[in-house]
Structures are given as structure tokens and as C-alpha cells.
Amino acid sequence: MLWYTWGLLALSFGVVAENGLNGWLRYAPLPDELRQHASSLPSRAVIVALNETETSPVYVAGKELQAGLKGVLGYTLSLSHNLNLSASTNSSAIILVGTLAAYNLSVKHNVSTLAADGFWLNVKGGQVTILGQNERGALYGAFEYLSMIAQGDFSDVDLVSSPSAPIRWVNEWDNLDGTIERGYAGASIFFRNGAVVEDLTRAAQYARLLASIRINGIVLNNVNANATLLTAENMDGLGRIADAMRPYGVQVGISLNFASPQTLGGLATFDPLDPSVVGWWTDKTAQLYQRIPDFAGYLVKANSEGQPGPLTYNRTLADGANLFARAVLPHGGVVMFRAFVYNNHLDPSDWKADRANAAVDFFQHLDGHFLDNVVVQIKYGPIDFQVREPPSPLFAHLPHTNAAIELQISQEYLGQQSHLVYLAPLWKSILDFDLCVDGQPSLVRSILSGARFGRKLSGYAGVVNVGTNPNWLGSHMAMSNLFAFGHLAWDPTQNPQTLLETWTRLTFSLSPTVLSTVTSISMASWPAYENYTGNLGMQTLTDILYTHFGPNPASHDNNGWGQWTRADSTFIGMDRTVSNGTGFAGQYPPDIAAQFEAPATTPDELLLWFHHVPYTHRLRGDGKTVIQHLYDAHYAGAQTAQGFLAAWAALRDDDGGAAGAGAIDAERFDDVLFQLTYQAGHALVWRDAIAGFYHNLSWIADEHGRVGYHPHRIEAENMVLRGYVAVGVTPAVTASNGTAIVVADGGVRGEAVAVLDGVASGVYDIAIGYFDVFGGRAHYGAFINDEPLVEWIGDLEDRLGHVFSTKLDGHSATRVTVKGVGIERGDVLKVIGIADGGERAPLDYVAVLPAGVVD
Ligand code: GCU
């Protein structure tokens, strides 16, 4: 396809406020300069959608084309459902969408190779032909065409596109009560108060977004499933959801609770081989298919993290999966059986124990025992959606079993959508990994396409967790991850940056400045996040015992969860070697195993995943010691995050209005600005906590003298306090000097005062570190010589849209910054906090920062 050189054109944009509901399907009007290229598509064109049934994806495609061309070009085109009829209108241009069968094509040879869901898109001047292998494919082709014109691309194309794999599903972790496990964007759009919601408008809107990225299935409820989803009333509700999503070609499935025959059905057992249990599931499944004839199938989390499963009865995991497979088989359904099975009560004193070994230990010997409509769904790494993991070795061990990869769009361990982290490069590092099974090229993506082992059913599952927030994920920027997920599932050879650029043009603007800004900060975001949260393969050093958001490296060790770092005063890292460790490295095929067995051949980014080394061990890449690299990475990562904010802020118009020469509406510009401001502050919390933690543990100084040294900060506990008292913070490394102040019990108002007599007169940035906990919305005001400087509220739970913590810790630690403040030596700085409920207006420090210093 041909891209116009936007850089040479002076584009002008008309922008209206937007809330993100349409994601990348905005169909924003093209700038006049680009509209002129549309001359090949006359405004008298006729759209022909070869299906008259309103709930058919082909019909929907016609409507979508109509709406898209109206939005992008301002055309009002007529829509017909009969080719012959429309031909009689004598229009010079026809945009045709339908299935191959409906068009009755005298099959072109390349079109005949289309796989299920595939499409052929042919644009020749004013003639546009979009033919799907099935109805869904036709809709995908229509979205592809709309994506082109929304980007101002009117070139002729002849595109034949088929999916890499048949399973391209999203998983939602919604609970029946309306909450969402690891959801960061409000309540469920599907469930409330134990039932399916009445108004399914959002479900249909979500299906539209999913169809546009070629997702064909959705599992609606949490893998930690509630059996009452299978009551008659709730199955009726599921039927309504399926009806809402069917026009977009999205089939619904559900997660099951293995014990349902007992807990819901009242049977004495849930043994998968017991005839009464088999009968119960057969009946339930038939009842579901009565309501939803195209029901996609089941997702099963069994014998994991307290969930019931077949092991309870000494049956195998394959017995468990096949129970459901037999139930759905006559109806054409699929069972996604999760490989996330492990013991969460491991003995940390056992050097050889390793949670990473679990998937292969539990599943390898079952290869070939699963029925053909079972797909084993494997998390990308051996632990749990960490910022860096090697690919799960289980992908190499199931040549006779269908496999799917489980990716997480929901950023559970990656900043929970409050940090910008573009995940496609992470996913690509896994998909492009060559596992060298039997010494043959074995890219993870060719295992997932089914090609490597000759499997028919395989693919991709993405945990998304959209919520009622109008922008779906609680973050406009995070939507690039959903977009990239769908497109990579379709074609995993695609380039993450190219996908990002497409998403940016469709989501924000065709402005070259916006494009380069969003691209550069997004592409830098995963490396930055890795740098400030846990590098060298240590995993995300978050609080694994609480909310998986802020820093708490100590929480990783000395418990049964097995996300260990084995850090002590001299050494750090898991020994996963065969020679001396847990043996995990040996789960890979020999070429890869040999590479991971020795530090000298292990890539630096996975060094501490595989090896227990002294802090003074030198890295292959930059020759630094592990500890110095760790310090430097955390400082560099946090610095990069400051740059995201600066780059975005630079898009602001000179007149302070809408951003980027009017290229982005003010509403979304401000939302993103707010989140990047938050991230810049929280990245410093991460930096200080992690660097401080390992400094305290190793007692090895930072060569650059930064760690633990904050010459520009005034600790709140050292200010003159009225109504405030000092409290210790846990973990101590998440507060400056380990201590904060809170309004004393029984009081409402506190005051902290410092005389700036150590500060030379000049212009400074003032940063105030505080904690924003769930349980109240405290008010704060800062003053210089009693002149107001800044006022704010501890309301991140509203503004970032999810709850971090009820305590003072690494989740709630945050800060506000005021730039360019004129200070005279001896000025009096005062912060007043008004407590609200459980939020006792906690303060950590005030920093008076000379130009260019961020600390
Ligand atoms: C993670 C996550 C849980 C989830 C589990 C799973 O451990 O924290 O909330 O239930 O993965 O994928 O089953």
C-alpha cells in the first residue's frame, strides 16, 4: 500500500472532544489535503452488502462501510443488498461486501486459498470488492478497507489475507457481582449483582472493536469461575450477550468451575469419570447450546490456586479436559484447558523447588492424551505475566496436542494501565523465539499456527478485562495493546512499530508530530518499565502478596508462591541450571538448554532468571557489575519516563488549547497528560525503592552516589509539624527515609512547615511526595509565604480509575510537581493537609529541585 508523505503536507484538523469509546474506529474526517486523493472513489458510489439479515456480519459490514465513509469523507452512500438491483442504478462505483459463496465467484485461484475467516480485498479505482471466506471474513475485510481510507490511503490493492490460527479469543476475568479480577477500568460491562446486565449496549460496542481486530471468540467470566453462571436465568443472560455479539462474528464462551456438579448440581461428587458427573455436564452443555447454537466453548482453570479439578480424584488433567471436550463435541465446541497449574505452597528453603517447572511437569506426559477439540492454553512465560520471562518450555513439549498462548493485555504486573507499557515488543520476543525442537526451526509462532507440529486447532488467548470506563481500559494509550494483540494473533510476523503507527493514526491523528511522539514513547515504554521495575530477568519486583502494582521486592522471597529472587547480602538470582539448580533450564530442547545453562551464554536480560550470581558478577553486554547495572537501569528507566511526559506535553498548542496543532482533542490529550504525569512520579517511587532495597541488602555503593542520597528533599518528618505525626512506612524503601507523616488520630487538619534557608534564590520545580490511599479523598494545599502554590485532592482512585492500596506503601506513593517556582532564600514553605476518612493526608517529602534535576 502506498503511504502519502504526510510530512510534506500542512494538515489542518477539526477536532471535537472524545472519550475514547470508539477506540480506533473513530472515522474522523480526513483533512482536506488528503481528501483530494479520494477522487477515485466518487461520492455517488453504492455499497452492496450481500445479506439482508440485520444480525449478519455482512449486513453489519455494509452499515459500517456506510458510517465510515460518511465520517471520513462526508459521503452519504446508499446501501443495497442486491447486486443486480444496484447495478441498475448505473453508479460508476460499487463497494461490494459479501461471502465468496454469496457472490458465487468463479473462483480466482488465490482467493480459493482463503482459510476460515479470511478475506479478499480488491480496490481498483472506484470498484471495491470485499469477499470473505465466511461472513466474519467479509466484515474483517470491510474493516481493513475502512482502516485504509481513515488513514488517507486510496491506493489500489489486491490483498488476500487469512488468519495464522483459528483460535483468536479474548478472556475477560469478570465476576458475576460486577467486579473484575485484575480489571483496571471500572465494573463489568456484562454482569452485576449475580446476573447478566439488562443493557448490553457496551457488549455490542465491544464486539465491534473486537471484530475490527479480527477476534472471533470471547470468554466472558473469570477463570476463577462461579458455578452460578450455569443457573437457567444466567444461561438466558448469556444467550442475550451472545445475541449482542453475534452480528460482529464474536462467539461467546465461558469459564467453568470444575466442582459445579457438586456445588450447583447437588451431586455427591465432581469426579470427571463418574457417570452422574458426565451426565450433568452433558445436560448443562446441551442447555447452553439450546440458547446459544454457536457457543464457542469452555475455558477451564483446574487444580490451580485453590480451584477444584480432576487431581482431587486422582484423575489426570487430560481426564478433566476430555470430560468437557466430549460434552461440547457434538455441538462443535472447543475446550481451552489452562496449563497454569502449579503448587503455590512450595518450600522456599528447598533449593531445587521451582514453580517455573510446573507446566512441563504437569503436562508433558499428557501429550497426545487430549481429545482433538481440546486446546492447552499456556501463559507466555513459566511464571505469570512478568515484565521479562523466557518462553514457556511447554510449547516445545506438546507435538500431539493443540496449543494456544495466553497473553495479558490487562497490565496486571506491568503498571495496571496507569503506566504506559506497549506490550507488542514483549510478545514478539516470545513469538519469535526459536525453541529448536528436535534441532529443527521451531518458532513459538509456528507452533501456535499449528504449522510446526501439524495441528489444526491452535492460537491465541488474550486477557483483556475491559470495564465500564468509556475508554474501555482506563487508559487511551493502553488500547494499543488490544489493537496489537488482535493483529498479531492474525499475523504474528507483523512489526510492533508498524501496528503502533496504524493504531496511532486511527486513534489520535494523522499529524506527523503526533505519530512520531506516540511511536517513540510507546516503543520506549516496555524497556523503560523493565528498567525501573526489575531488570536482568528478576521479574517485576512488585508486591506479589498484595496488589501487583507498586514496588515490594522483599515480598518475592520466603513464601510458597515461588516467585523467588533468592537475593541475600552477596548473591542474587534463581539457580535454574541442571548442574546445580532447579533443573528448569533443562526443560528446553538441548540447544536452548545449553545456552541457558551457563551465565556466559545466557542473555543479560535473563541472567538472574537462570543464575544465582554475586552482585559483583560482570555482565556480558556492558561489562558492569550486576549491582551497578541494576542501579543504572533503575535511574535510566525512571528518567525515560520523565521524557514521556515532556514529549506528550510538547504536543500542546501554543495557545494552551487542544494538542498538537489541533490534532488531538483536549479531552484525550489531558487524560494522557495526567497519566504520564502520574507515571513519571511513580517511576521515581519504583527507582528509589528497588535501588534502595538492593543497596541496603548488599551494602555496595552506587558508583555515581545517587542511591539513598536526596540533597534536594526535605523529609516531611523533619518539618515543623502541627496536627501531623510521623509514621513508619512498610516497606520502608517505598518512603523517602522510610517515614511519612499523617494527620494525628482524632484530628482533621495538619500543617508541615519548612524554612527554605538552605536554598539559594532562584527558580525551582517543587515536588511533593505523598500517599494516595483508598478510603478517603484528603485535601492538600501548599503555600510559599502563605501565597497559594498548589492545591490538590487525594483522588487517584477516581482519576486513575482503580484502587491501589489502603495503606502507605509502594502502591499509594505518588507526587505532585509544580514547575518554575520563584524562591527567595528564607521563604517559608507550608503544606496543609485535611484528612478524609481513612486517608489521613499522608505526606512524604518536599523537594526543591534546581532546573533539570528530577529527584
Ligand atoms: C495470576 C493472577 C490471578 C489469576 C491467575 C490466573 O496469578 O494474579 O488473579 O487468577 O493469574 O491466571 O489464573
SSE map:
Elements: H1 32-35, E1 46-49, H2 57-73, E2 78-80, H3 83-87, E3 94-99, H4 100-103, E4 119-124, E5 127-132, H5 135-150, E6 157-161, E7 167-174, E8 191-192, E9 195-196, H6 201-212, E10 217-221, H7 232-245, E11 251-256, H8 260-263, H9 275-291, E12 297-300, H10 317-328, E13 334-338, H11 358-363, E14 374-379, E15 402-408, H12 424-431, H13 444-448, E16 459-463, H14 479-490, H15 496-507, H16 512-533, E17 571-572, H17 590-597, H18 607-610, E18 613-614, H19 626-649, H20 659-662, H21 666-698, E19 713-715, E20 720-722, E21 724-728, E22 739-743, E23 749-756, E24 762-771, E25 779-784, E26 787-793, H22 796-799, E27 813-823, E28 827-834, E29 843-850
Parallel strand pairs: 1-2, 1-3, 3-5, 7-10, 7-16, 10-11, 11-12, 12-13, 13-14, 14-15, 15-16
Antiparallel strand pairs: 4-5, 4-6, 8-9, 17-18, 19-29, 20-23, 21-22, 23-28, 24-27, 24-29, 25-26, 25-28
Helix pairs in contact: 2-5, 9-10, 14-15, 15-16, 16-19, 19-21
Bound molecules: alpha-D-glucopyranuronic acid.
The site of alpha-D-glucopyranuronic acid has 9 residues, from loops.
Question: What does this protein look like?
Answer:
The structure is a single chain. The chain has 855 residues and is of the alpha/beta class. It folds into four domains: 32-161, Chitobiase/beta-hexosaminidase domain 2-like (Chitobiase, domain 2, 2-Layer Sandwich), CATH 3.30.379; 167-507, TIM Barrel (Alpha-Beta Barrel), CATH 3.20.20.80; 553-574 and 612-698, Alpha-d-glucuronidase, C-terminal Domain; 713-850, Jelly Rolls. It is built from 22 helices and 29 strands. It has an eight-stranded parallel beta barrel. Strands 2-1-3-5-4-6 form a six-stranded mixed beta sheet. Helix 19 runs antiparallel to helix 21. The longest helix is centred in the C-terminal third of the chain and has 33 residues, at 666-698. The radius of gyration is 28 Å and the shape is globular. The two termini are 47 Å apart.
